[in-house]
Amino acid sequence: MAPTLLLVALVAVVGSVAAVPRSVPAEWSLHRRADPDALIPLKFSLAQSNLEKLETFLLDIADPRSPNYGQHWSPAQVKETFRPSTETVDTVHAWLTHDAGIHAHKIRLSSNGDILQLNVTIAEAESLLRAEYYVYSNDEDGSMRVGCHGGYTLPEHVSKHVDFVWPTVYFGGPRSISSRSESISPSSTFGRESGASTIPIGNLADLALSGCDTAVTLDCLRDLYNFDFTPVSGRVNSIAVAEFGDNVYRASDLNLFFNSYRPDQVNNTPTLISVEGGNPNVAGDVGEPSLDIELVMGLLGPKQNLSLYQVAQPLASLDPTDELLAALDGSYCSVSPVNSEGITDCGDKPRTNVISISYHFNPDLNEPSIAPVVQRQCTEIGKLVLTGITIIASSGDGGVAYQQSHECLLANGTLVAGNPNGSFVGQLPASCPFITAVGATSVAPGASTEQVEESTTDFPSGGGFSNNFARPAWQDAAVRNYLDHFVPNYAASVFNRSGRAYPDVSANGWPLVIAQGGGFVLSGGTSASAPIFASVIAAVNDARIAAGKRTVGFINPALYSDLFAHAFNDVVVGSNPGCGTQGFPAAPGWDPVSGLGTPNFVKLRDAFLALP
């Protein structure tokens, strides 16, 4: 009888000789010992070359004072520079064949040279890794996966050449969020950033008498950010939004919105880029895609095409972040798919100049079973922006806590929901330093668009300091100013003062007028702020392309430089409470609520046009 093939957890970490044992996560139950004859596709993610130079490489092309500003790398150059060394491949291969007795014909190297894969039985994997494999059941969705929460072991001379082994102790991946009252609950297993309630609008005509403090339309956004824009670069420029699983849009909702606010976009839809069979024409939640697509297409108009990365709902063994990254640069791909769970879109999808992501996937915890996973994902993002892509993500809607359920870290290392007193917890991908993270603002009650907004009070905009990534040099001066003059007197254990600080910028996040589900609603969250800011950067790229220059790519070093200090509206009112505290207060200059502030498009465009 042929061996059974099991669903598997995606990755497991190995930071030293042995992976640190951990308890079974709260949402998972230990079901039974795994069948020793069941097959699993065991994959060794190999340590890449030159990663210690990644930030230097990026600054060389992204620092506005660098003579090589804008000289983005080709994908081939990136691939060869970071390919694992021959020594790394040979060391792991020799251990598998000579020491572990695995036949060489069973071992295959991926095209990127970053994964060694072998199909083995559970019994063989347990012997190889000195681990015990179990089948686990997810209490929330009933899915099953196999792993070894008790940890695994690699020889010391091998472990330094391996980032992590799949499948073993990692139980992370996409996380659900808790929806607030009156909001539409996402049915996917990973979180969209919809922090504020979604409120139906009874009569659009009433909005004509409303101010932008009570109903934010496209005209409000144009006024707030000096966004007078008509594309001139045609189809050469590109921007995309990423949507995941059964978060889908309806063309009828787009037309409903465009009929009222952008008639020249009626009957236009985004260009589909399907990832792993992602299909927007299925039943699902329309909240997030409606928000993203209507804002971008509404702000940019019909002369600028919008692409849609529709990433399929992954099975239990896959992470949607990895599916998207694999489609763009070939990372995380199986050597050959062993079952329906293998990633098959491997570097074959078109890349756009700007990508907006309004989802979160993992808490920013420096926890042994999570840290190497999210660090690897951030590295892949860094390699993509090295090629000239700008990746923008929402900063979260939980303030200094993680996601809408307001999870905080207790002293015993437990992540607990409900805003308990504890350490602050950021979220990924926003805290990755190669992402431009966007917080949320609102027009103050009774204020006009001529006044600077405040940090939103309808939900706490996400922001803080990473537990996984060190603060990069390009933001050090701005962050130190905040830490020296404005930070509350929290204990050292509350947040990581030396971590990458975010958000970088902000934009309106509530209450935006959106069409979804056949009617108009007031909606928002940092999930709205991200596509708004992404539209601004797409417009900047349009101007640079028209001037015969390259796209801006990795924008963070430029944004934090003195050359761009005048390009933002400084937000000084608001805070982002959580974890039993008031969080961080907004302040003059950069702060962990609104970042550098909201954009002034004309000033931002002109500052980028002044660069090579």
UniProtKB/TrEMBL annotation:
GO cellular component terms given for this protein: extracellular region
Keyword Nucleotidyltransferase tagged: no
GO function terms (MF aspect): metal ion binding; serine-type endopeptidase activity; tripeptidyl-peptidase activity
Subcellular compartments: Secreted, Extracellular space
Positions of Ca(2+) binding: 570-571, 589, 591
Record keywords, A-Z: Calcium, Hydrolase, Metal-binding, Protease, Serine protease, Signal, Zymogen
Signal peptide from the UniProt entry: 1-19
Domain (Peptidase S53): residue spans on this chain: 215-611
Membrane-crossing residue ranges in chain numbering: none
Protein name: Subtilisin-like protein
